[in-house]
């Protein structure tokens, strides 16, 4: 079921200017709980989901305009735009990833293959050349547990490759701008649940490299277009998963290892789940969910 706002709650979409530190409020809604802003490659529009649907929004004006997805079950907040801006990839409630024309006209096709009802695909990234998607494969186990790992899938051939194969909780897989790495968050750096940190792994496979080492719970790494900085959302210590309605911090990891706080807000799930950098790397988009 799509998420909804609680009594007295609102959704607020911000555009954060990295140079000035100003967070400009672009959209407020007391009715629609929208999530996970993308930026179109031309820098003119933002894309969000809400109520199981997908919308585009002009950066400087206008209202939400629905992007039609006929025949696709309600979507969640895992959606990514292709580098050429012609295709939007979405994760559907049926557990599969679909490619749809961003302009709204044309064929919608399923990208992922059927692995049975116990397996679901959660999209997070598209390669710089637009040929490969990075997703998290979630497998429901017979003992009622779940297993998550990082996968790559070729958009044209549907050929897949598994980058991680273990029992650690992984999420948020996203390509580096040069296509050499896949960034993700994982609990592999700790024996205590609720201590996710940021990692990266070569696209060709290998041992994951840990990037953050702190007491907070760090999710959804988003490399900037130049590959020098990583934006992510940081939850309070001990947080399990990436829940909604938490006091979180949107942070920036610089290439020298320095961590900066950009914005503290009430949010979490839906705040910055997918790639949300402006194409020129000067701004970020994120969502807050204040109450009262």
TrEMBL record:
Coiled-coil annotated spans: none
Pfam families cross-referenced by the UniProt entry: PD40
Annotated SUPFAM superfamilies: DPP6 N-terminal domain-like
Gene3D superfamilies the record matches: TolB, C-terminal domain (2.120.10.30)
Superkingdom of origin organism: Bacteria
Stated family: Belongs to the TolB family.
Designated name of the protein: TolB family protein
């Amino acid at each position: 079921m799509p998420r909804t706002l609680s009594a007295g709650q609102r959704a607020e979409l911000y555009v954060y200017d990295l140079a000035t530190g100003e967070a400009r409020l672009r959209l407020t809604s007391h009715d629609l709980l929208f999530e996970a802003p993308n930026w179109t490659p031309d820098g003119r529009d933002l894309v969000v989901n809400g109520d199981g649907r997908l919308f585009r929004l002009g950066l400087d004006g206008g209202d939400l305009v629905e992007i039609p997805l006929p025949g696709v079950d309600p979507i969640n907040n895992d959606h990514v735009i292709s580098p050429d801006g012609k295709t939007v990839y979405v994760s559907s409630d049926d557990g599969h990833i679909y490619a749809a024309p961003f302009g709204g006209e044309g064929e919608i096709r399923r990208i992922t293959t059927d692995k049975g009802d116990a397996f679901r695909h959660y999209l997070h990234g598209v390669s710089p050349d637009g040929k490969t998607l990075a997703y998290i494969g979630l497998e429901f186990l017979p003992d009622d547990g779940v297993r998550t790992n990082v996968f790559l899938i070729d958009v044209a051939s549907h050929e897949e490759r598994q980058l991680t194969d273990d029992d650690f909780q992984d999420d948020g897989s996203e390509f580096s701008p040069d296509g050499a790495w896949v960034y993700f968050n994982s609990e592999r750096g700790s024996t205590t649940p609720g201590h996710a940190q940021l990692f990266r792994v070569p696209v060709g496979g290998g041992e994951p490299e840990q990037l953050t080492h702190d007491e907070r719970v760090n999710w959804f790494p988003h490399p900037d277009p130049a590959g020098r900085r990583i934006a992510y959302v940081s939850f309070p210590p001990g947080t399990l998963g990436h829940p909604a309605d938490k006091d979180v911090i949107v942070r920036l990891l610089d290439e020298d290892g320095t961590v900066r706080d950009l914005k503290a807000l009430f949010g979490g799930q839906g705040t910055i789940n997918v790639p949300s950098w402006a194409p020129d790397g000067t701004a970020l988009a994120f969502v807050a969910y204040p109450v009262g």
